[in-house]
Amino acid sequence: MRDTISNDIYYLGIDHGNHLMKGANHIMENGVEALETKPTFSANTLVYNGHFYKIGESRMNVKDNKLDDDDYYLLTLVLMAKESITREIPYGAHVVLGVGMPLKQFATVRKQFVKYLMRERQPVHFRYEDQAFEFTIDNVMAFPQCYAAVAEQLSNMSGECLIVDVGSWTIDIMSVRNGVPIESKCETFTESMISVIQDIKSRTSELYGKELSESKITEYIHNPNVTIPDKYKKLMDEAFKRFADRVEGILKENGHDTEFSDVIYVGGGATIMKNYGKQSNNISYIEDVRANAIGYELLARKMG
User: Where does the Actin homologue MreB-like C-terminal domain start and stop, copy by copy (predicted)?
Assistant: First the structure.
């Protein structure tokens, strides 16, 4: 995605996932490792307030509250750096961040999340991979995830539509009628792709004496032709089919009609639903995991 700028203010959409951090152009794992001393290699190294961190070399454990420490703030800085390099955003630029959170958390967490990212000390200075960065964060705008992923399409939607955002830790369900979200039918459920991945790792270790890595499992989701022994693929196929069945069960149990409504699956689990879920002409998929981040950015620019 090309740079989005208005009156010398740059707009950056960032999706703070429980597994992946996503921007309009970049995706990275959300691991943060504090270091005691300067590392040997500058790759993935953030220097902030005199401290060294390795960023994005693994997945962090899921947090009950993302605002309890500075990890997601540090991840935000690194993703800003990556996006600024790709877009050639200048040193010292003024930026507006577009961010989001699950539907049911939005009303209660939005203000705290904005405050968390909108630090009083501006501009912010740091180094990433031996390059100096300076940004002034002029504003942080928060939007509901799931909604952001389809915001540009809403005006073209007619009749009943169900948007299902299958993320790494939660599932957001948004009912839409003639392009307008029905707030009373917006729901968030904890049904975890991460738990499925952990179960696969445990089962492969138990059955075959070798734990399949998380990166290989994730790769297989998007590329079934990846070189992995068939017995591991069979185990993963069975686990992903059970997960898809559970997602469809959640929809049915909560009164969502998937036969007479259009259904759009988005998020990291959209590919699983496409490959292992029910197939029908009224079901479609947005498989780009950056969809929410791109949506946050577009919405922030419109409101800016």
Answer: 163-275
Question: Same domain for 116 and 154?
Answer: no
**DSSP E strands: which ranges in 145-197?**
160-166, 171-177, 180-181, 187-189
> For the CA atoms of the chain, what is the radius of gyration?
20
DSSP string, 109-134: HHHHHHHHHS-SS-SEEEEETTEEEE
pLDDT grade for 7, boundaries at 50, 70 and 90: low
- Kindly state the DSSP code that residue 159 receives in the 8-state scheme: S
Query: Does the pLDDT value for residue 6 go beyond 60?
Result: no
Total residue count of the chain as it appears in this document: 304
Domain co-membership, 90 together with 167: no
Cα separation of 286 and 290, whole Å? Answer: 10
Residue 264 domain-assigned? Answer: yes
| Domain shared by 101 and 159, yes or no | no
d(CA 53, CA 46) in angstroms, rounded, equals 5
Number of domains forming the structure of the chain: 2
Which pLDDT score is estimated for 5? Answer: 53
CA atoms of 292 and 23, how far apart (whole Å): 9
> Can you tell me which residue has the tokens 């079901």?
283
pLDDT for the residue 107 = 81
